[in-house]
Amino acid sequence: MVAGKNIFELKDFSFYYGDFLAVKSVNLGIEARKITAIIGPSGCGKSTLLRSLNRMNDLILTSRVEGEVLFHGVDIYRKDTDVIELRKRVGMVFQKPNPFPSSVYENVCYGPRIRGIKKKSQLDEIVENALVRADLWKEVKDKLHESGMSLSGGQMQRLCIARSLAQEPEVLLFDEPTSALDPISTANIENLLQELRKTITIVIVTHNMQQAARISDYTAFMYLGELIEFGETDTIFVNPYNKLTEEYITGRFG
Amino acid sequence: MRWQTKEKAVERIVSAVGLFSVIVLLLIGFFLFKEAFFIFYKIGVMKVLFGMAWYPTYEPPEFGMFPLIMGTVAVTILTSLLAIPLGIATAVYIAEVAHHRVKEILKPVIEMLASFPSVVLGFFGMVVVAPILSNWLSPILSEHIPELLRSTGIPLLSTTVADFFYDKLFIASGLNISTAALMLTARAIPVISSIAEDALTAVPRTYREASYSLGAGKWDTIWRVVIPSSVSGLSVAVILGIGTIVGETMIVLMVAGGAAVIPYWIFDAARPMPAAIAAEMAEAPFRSLHYHALFGIGAILFLITFGLSLLSDFISKKYRSVRIGEKI
Amino acid sequence: MTETFRDARAPIDALRKRGRNLTESFFLSLIRLLGSVGALILFAILFFVAYNGIHILSWEFITQPPLDAMTKGGIFPVIVGTVLLTMLCMIVVMPIGVTTAIFLSEYAKPGLLLKIVMMSIYTLAGVPSVVFGLFGLAVFVVTLNFGMSLLAGSLTLAIMVLPYIISTSEEALKAVPYSFKEASLACGATKWQTIRKVILPTALPGILTGAILGTAKVSGETAPIMFTAAAFFTTGLPRSVFEPVMALPYHIYVLATAGTHIEETRPIQYGTALTLIVLVLGMNLLGIILRSRQRKKRAW
Fold this sequence. Notes:
The structure holds three protein chains of three kinds. Chain A is α/β, with parallel strands linked by helices. Chain A has helices at 46-52, 83-89, 104-108, 110-114, 120-133, 137-140, 153-165, 183-196, 209-215, 233-238, 243-249, and strands at 6-17, 20-31, 35-39, 63-71, 74-75, 90-93, 171-175, 201-205, 218-223, 226-232. Chain A has a domain at 3-97 and 173-249: 3-Layer(aba) Sandwich (Rossmann fold), CATH 3.40.50. In chain A, a hairpin with a 2-residue loop joins strand 9 and strand 10. Chain B has a domain at 40-49 and 62-118 and 176-327: MetI-like (MetI-like fold, Orthogonal Bundle). Chain B is built from 14 helices and two strands; from the N terminus they run H-H-H-E-E-H-H-H-H-H-H-H-H-H-H-H. In chain B, strands 1-2 form a two-stranded antiparallel ribbon. Chain C is an all-alpha fold. Chain C is 72% helix and 1% strand. A two-stranded antiparallel ribbon of chain C has the order 1-2. Chain C has a single domain (59-297), classed as Orthogonal Bundle (MetI-like fold). Classes of the chains: A alpha/beta, B mainly alpha, C mainly alpha.
């Protein structure tokens, strides 16, 4: 893999909750404009790793990191990092859809607004754009001012994706985005991810291996905080190098 | 005795005691209105509520409560201006901003302030704040500053503004509604902040996460997500804070100045309703008109706080979550 | 459209913190400032009263009666009065408060009755203390003919603090895990046996902490006892519950506003205020520490 194509580069990265080592010395490159899936059994540190990429783990008081996470070659754990700018460029979509208790429109323009965009026409354009890209525009264009909580689960999740897209992020992190959704909504989201990949780098944590196999370009398998194997999805699923990986993806544990 | 019989008996007793609070509340209402009835019956409701003169011990006595009511209104408004921002800010500081070590200290400190005897707050207002206002602040505001302004010779500033300072910011006595408002603020901050803090803490973590993941800063998250989603809880905090201010007795009794006239300016003295009851009850002859009039004030206070309780209960049930768009 | 937008940004510099966060730090600092005012007030008053009162406090001051129209001597009967009022009040209120809490957490069924009870408690908590004083005057002093007395004052205080005791006890009872109850019932215990043998003992530390905090609240109250119990001066200690008593908060009020020797008794006022603060805040601090210990220790 050519280093220059990597938007993220993790070097000996470890993450602690208090004394508990949740991610052990991971080395990993994430290629731009591809989908990278992180799989592994529950508690293997995959969500922690994902949340480290835009420093959402900062919200936990006793956390501590070692090693580096390079974003465009810059360590995001440096003291002078602008976390806010980082999160704007590296957005995140959560497991459970979490729209704010306000209208669809207000949800989407939350980000642009905190960045000081006030002009109605400009906001309208951003909202429409983001909703179109999230494949939600057709469904909600007539109820932009209804509560975001009134949408169905799948729509809510796409609303959350639109809310992130309104920020024009370079990377979107998905933390098991479909685990709370029905199969049809899940399919919609998966199609959406394929579409988004053309412009955005995607990292997705999933415990659904078929999903990882279906949509991702690269797959990382984690176990007990360690990165066991990383490579092209086709290789990993067809011909895993490591015994553990093989046992996991063939369903022998996890 | 069969155990079923015993269980039934216990349940009856416990339930009966459980109704005690209801009975007490009814009794409070009953006795207040029973003793208050006579004054409204004898003098007339309108004349009592909107009468401009409170001279209960004159011959013939007058029982116009309007100046007392306005006294309460004035100190409540003044105090609210200080206590609501400070109380909410304290809650935001504790719940959202403070490092957890600061929080561990600040929380009990505010709780201690809540338990501070109000007579000590009144005492502090009398012996410290009032003299500072009349002996120190008043000369600066009404003498030194106008002098300085006049010497500049700038139009408007040396005339109108200087006169304003000279006329209006002279503090004749430190015992006035501003001093009362300052001390009442100390009383209301912990009440408002403890309820507001609960409201802020109840905002789901997912809202905060969503906001942070979109690159919002701490202040943006507080101002645009956390506060709007807890508006109903914050209003309850404000309403109950106002209830505390309206009913607080010792502070207004000791530092509001005691004059039963309508206060027109922030350095005027007043006699808010609770102060009138506390100051006069000892001298009012039993079952005299004066005695009944003081119960009348008590009944009004009871109705006000009862209404505020109902309102806050209604709000907390009705508006669980509020749209955040309105704020933006 | 997105392509050019994104690439135009210089990746490295953009991640450095810049002045853009000015509003952010301004408002956060403002919150820190305003949010500290309450604490500053507490410390200012504490410091002031302690500074002026500490040299008055002595063994004699707390063990001797007032002398020479209260310009000299101590405040022994005043302290005793407050302790008696508070103790009697707690003896009355605890059984009623805890039983009401048991009713609310174990027996009451959802419905109109429960709503009325809860609403009454909530409303009672918001009633101004001076109104409780009026109620005590009308009921205990006059109707029941207790006169201005220790008993009338304690009962008035008991009614005032009742909602607080109910809510702290209820919280303690509700913190008892359901599995404890299940285990007891599974052993064949009746509901009342379960409450008495399992739930109450487990909740006891929490209930007692509430009682301590309630005691702190009660001992600082002035308005409810003004017309029901408090005397400006009594000769010696009360001999029965039907006699009026002196009390710390009322003593401060009277000496500071109504006495004939306001300036001469100033040191006594400071001393009394300091005694009251030490008593109230001491108990309060004890309650807070106990409560946070219980919350941390709770193993279940």
